[in-house]
Amino acid sequence: MLDADIKWLHVEASSKCNAWCPACSRNQNGFGIIDGLIEEDLSTERFLEVIKQLPNLYGVQFCGNYGEPVIAHNIMELIEVAKQYCKKIQIHTNGSLRSRSWWGDLARDLKDVEHDVWFGIDGLKGVHEIYRQGTDYDKIIENACEFIKQGGSATWQYIPYQHNEHQIRDCLKTSQRLGFKKFKLLKEFRNITNSKHYRTGAESELKPPTSIEHIIKFSKTNTSVIVNDCMHLSQPGVYLGANGKLNYCCYHHKVNLTANQFDNLDQLLYNNINITHKICVASCGK
């Protein structure tokens, strides 16, 4: 049995992806995947083995470290397992894969459980694709709208940069018109000095927004939210990689913890605070 205090399980359903976001750890600034990356899907059997050991689990977050959750061949199997063992399911996706009917089916399948699907949309058509390379804005909107139409709870997730900060307000209005329940601005700018085009390798620069104060002020006067912390910093949680390894968080994907190590987490660190927090603070500088 793993630590009974663990409330969230961060799951990487797959290390495969259709997108080439320059700041993603799976590729070389947007052009070609990193050396040594094994593209694989998390097995349903391993997921079930881990989730059975979390007696007080509240939520499962399907969010990629190296990949896109929806690309996994067994994503619906993983979701069905999660529904049996937790109260909430959260999925982070670029939304550019699968058919419109598939997204409608997903919404209907999630109706009987608390859920939230975050669509990463960083601008309107022509701007969104500057960071989300290899994705199709029109297809994302089509998929998200069908998901919403069939009863799905959707969030529009936005990463602000200099090249897209002028569209934040328009995207907020668009999200409200289309039926998204939330609009979240991420306080993670991921500026890259040598961003590369995913097809040509041509270099460019992704710059942070000109004024963080402006972004924060905007969030306080609208329904948008600045997301300051990752899941592991806000509540006790662990990470299960597509390779089946279980560890503190996605920054420590090469670690493989045993059940005995989880049983002794409180002794390893300080006064009943989950190890995740200390590890993430050291890694993320927060």
Quick structural overview:
The chain is of the alpha/beta class and 286 residues long. It has helices at residues 44-51, 75-85, 100-110, 128-131, 137-149, 168-178, 212-220, 231-234, 259-263, 265-268, 275-284; strands at residues 8-11, 59-62, 88-93, 114-120, 154-158, 182-186, 192-196, 203-206, 225-227, 237-240, 246-247.
Topology:
Blueprint: E1 8-11, H1 44-51, E2 59-62, H2 75-85, E3 88-93, H3 100-110, E4 114-120, H4 128-131, H5 137-149, E5 154-158, H6 168-178, E6 182-186, E7 192-196, E8 203-206, H7 212-220, E9 225-227, H8 231-234, E10 237-240, E11 246-247, H9 259-263, H10 265-268, H11 275-284
Parallel strand pairs: 1-2, 1-10, 2-3, 3-4, 4-5, 5-6, 6-9
Antiparallel strand pairs: 7-8, 10-11
Helix pairs in contact: 1-2, 3-5
Please, could you describe this protein's structure?
The protein has helices at 44-51, 75-85, 100-110, 128-131, 137-149, 168-178, 212-220, 231-234, 259-263, 265-268, 275-284; strands at 8-11, 59-62, 88-93, 114-120, 154-158, 182-186, 192-196, 203-206, 225-227, 237-240, 246-247. The protein is built from 11 helices and 11 strands. The protein has a single domain (8-284), classed as TIM Barrel (Alpha-Beta Barrel), CATH 3.20.20.70. The two termini are 30 Å apart. The longest helix has 13 residues, at 137-149. Helix 1 (44-51) runs parallel beside helix 2 and helix 3 packs parallel to helix 5 (137-149). Mean pLDDT is 85; it is low at 264-286. A 9-stranded mixed sheet has the order 9-6-5-4-3-2-1-10-11. It has a two-stranded antiparallel ribbon with strand order 7-8. The protein is of the alpha/beta class and 286 residues long. 43% of the residues are buried.
